[in-house]
Amino acid sequence: MDLKERCPIVYFGDHGDERGKLVVIEGSQDIPFEIKRVFYIYDSDDTVVRGQHANRESEFVLINVAGRSKVRITDGTEEIIVELDRPMMGVYIPRMIWKDMYDFSADSILLVLASTHYDGAEYIRDYEEYLKEIRGQ
Ligand code: TYD
Q: Whole-structure pTM over 0.85, yes or no?
């Protein structure tokens, strides 16, 4: 499977009417895992790069619910860049995929849905270590 297939763009139901929009994301239905954790990143800008890690256990879906940002995704061989700029779209990131988030607009709110509770020990923050682990897999 290539990287685009492993990290698909997902679109969510947009129940818009004359009162405004309402986007629904149901765990295990609209995304391929049960949601255990939600966090969001804001007040970043176009000078910072966040992420810069891979996770041994966690799967994520990233959604810019406001503004926009980019995510660079790699498996150590291929690289893709996804622009997140719509509240009804996200990108799925499975385990053991390296990601960098950058180019945040001033109004960016990047919502992240995760399949696990937080455990700093499952993060790989050294790219050389990441390459070693995936090549040993
Ligand atoms: P970090 O992983 O560096 O954020 P990003 O992936 O956006 O670059 O996390 C920043 C800090 O927040 C770090 O001290 C760990 C803490 N944190 C938690 O306590 N729980 C969480 O769920 C997350 C994502 C981070």
A: yes
